Amino acid sequence: GQQVMQIPQYQHVQEGEDFTTYCNSSTTLSNIQWYKQRPGGHPVFLIQLVKSGEVKKQKRLTFQFGEAKKNSSLHITATQTTDVGTYFCAGPKAAGNKLTFGGGTRVLVKP
Amino acid sequence: NAGVTQTPKFQVLKTGQSMTLQCAQDMNHNSMYWYRQDPGMGLRLIYYSASEGTTDKGEVPNGYNVSRLNKREFSLRLESAAPSQTSVYFCASSLREEQFFGPGTRLTVL
């Protein structure tokens, strides 16, 4: 079945530094979504990418969808303590609105 | 507009007990979902409902049953709880691709 993998599983970042987390799917995706979950909270939708090679920015966050539509990345610049949390990517299953979630990248920020 | 609400927030059960987790959404969404999240792991789909009156199994349906009572409400039932069902349970709803999650129910089975 479809698998979505994320690396790294954990990311320790010094405040002010940049980092990137990666998402890889075993199948070609029609779109990919990213969610953020703060510690003790629930996942919150961040963005959806649809087109091959698409790049979208949200302030310090840059999301990219791979040319083959099988991978995606999230790059955060000048990391802040508000970026703490787990970032999940998710790809749709073949039918319906069901999603397959990656295992997430847990981001810890050192002040 | 409350979004997705879940009750209870916390629950402790003994092995073999049963309970129902409640979920409701006020966004007029057709699709609703139940996920479980184990420590340090991603979200695994338990059951899915594309519309009122329809339900479908997800990745980990064993030990669970669901009811889509109406468009707003989607409940998850554990008939005979087991320690392996200790987890955080999230309900979500969607109109299209973007899913909106409830605050979760933290369930411990002793």
Keywords:
heterodimer, A: 111 residues, mainly beta, five-stranded antiparallel beta sheet, B: 110 residues, seven-stranded mixed beta sheet, four-stranded antiparallel beta sheet, 11 strands, globular
What does this structure look like?
The complex is a heterodimer of chains A (111) and B (110). With 111 residues, chain A is mostly beta strands. Chain A contains no helices and eleven strands. In chain A, the strands form two sheets. In chain A, strands 2, 4, 5, 9, 10 and 11 form a six-stranded mixed beta sheet that branches. A five-stranded antiparallel beta sheet of chain A has the order 1-3-8-7-6, with no helix packed on it. Chain B contains no helices and eleven strands. In chain B, strands 2, 4, 5, 6, 9, 10 and 11 form a seven-stranded mixed beta sheet that branches. Chain B has a four-stranded antiparallel beta sheet with strand order 1-3-8-7, with no helix packed on it. The A-B interface holds A 9, 31, 33, 35, 41-45, 48, 88, 92, 96-99, 101-104, 106 and B 31, 33, 40-45, 48, 50, 56, 58, 90, 92, 94, 96-104.
